[in-house]
Amino acid sequence: MAKKRGNGEGSILKRKDGRWQAAFSAQLPTGEHKRIYHYGNTRKECADWLTEMQHKASMGKPVTAADISLTEWLDEWFRKYCINIRDSTRMNYTTYLTHIRRHRIGQIHLSKLTTDDLQDFILFLQDNGKLDNSGGLSAKTIRNLFQMLHKALKQAVGNQIIWSNPSDYVELPKVHQKEVEFLSAEELHRLLEASDGETWQTGLILMMTTGIRIGELLALRQDSICCEEGIWYLNIRQTLQRVKNFNAKEGEKSTVLRCSDTKTDNSRRKIPILPEVVKHLQTHITRQKIAADQSYGLYETNPYLISNEIGECVDPSTFRKWFSQIIKRTDIQKKVTPHKLRHSFASHCLKNGMDIKNISSLLGHYSTDFSARVYVHTDLEGSYQAMTHCQSFIQNLLNSQSHRVITQKGNYYEN
Question: What is the distance in angstroms between the CA of the first residue and the CA of the last residue of the chain?
């Protein structure tokens, strides 16, 4: 038997299945009204919900999200509002959503989600966040996940689904900058010797001499090498990545190789190349043209610089495997990845007197502060040379101290 309330106050009724149902007419930002419902095992539960909705409405607070969970909202937000993100970002977001779905926080209603709930989720991610239950996630991954979550909840505030963003006040784990490792000039030379005669040695040379990222390297085509006013340079506009194929049909591969625009405006840049590198590139392109002449028309018209037998692009994982084989030919004992060549370029630029602003520009960093945090502390030799400017001051300071002698009682007297 339904027990109705006055007009505008909502209603409560008992369903045939024995559960109770409360209904409330919520006003949308457009001025329209939407009927929202709540189901409970007792009449009191529904009455309490209805009282809460009436209180929120009287305060001007949004009430339309009363029965939508965090997971349901994130799914809607991902579908409606993540339309301009890169495929690699979409892949990351998909993983972050999986982390949220497997935790109880995903089932909490948006209207009841608190900062404390989110802080508990952070602690869980730190201790046992990996999907295979093998341990916690890194501080950087947790920060990236919460950056996505903050955007989604901010949109919910903008849509007047919730009153405020509970993720504004969480305490995120601190990311500690790892000390950058790089190869010495002698180690770089050994790497070049080990790759001598290899078609893809050009890739190593470009990474060593420009600090280019592996995705940017593998996206370079012949027309990416440009010359203006006698200055040769690499025109960096795209990056090659293997990403999830979100539109895959039955029988199609779940991932695809895709060239896309670089992530930021800073990443789109022109990297000057010196005559020695230009000469090597010209030799490399000549070899590609010979291969094209012998391919019976199969070779790409504008081939990738690092390519397969017919000028097509090379999978980053394939290049990394090849790189690992080259490293094994050397006697370099430390762990070396292609990205370490980027670090090596920046570190040697710093050691040879290049200012941090130009290093940051060449690397495509978003700020000189970031470049300084990563690389300046690695330049021990440069720091020592800077200290020599204080040599006279330190000598005078210590020489004056040598004229004073400490007694056994700890008192000073002049020598």
Answer: 105
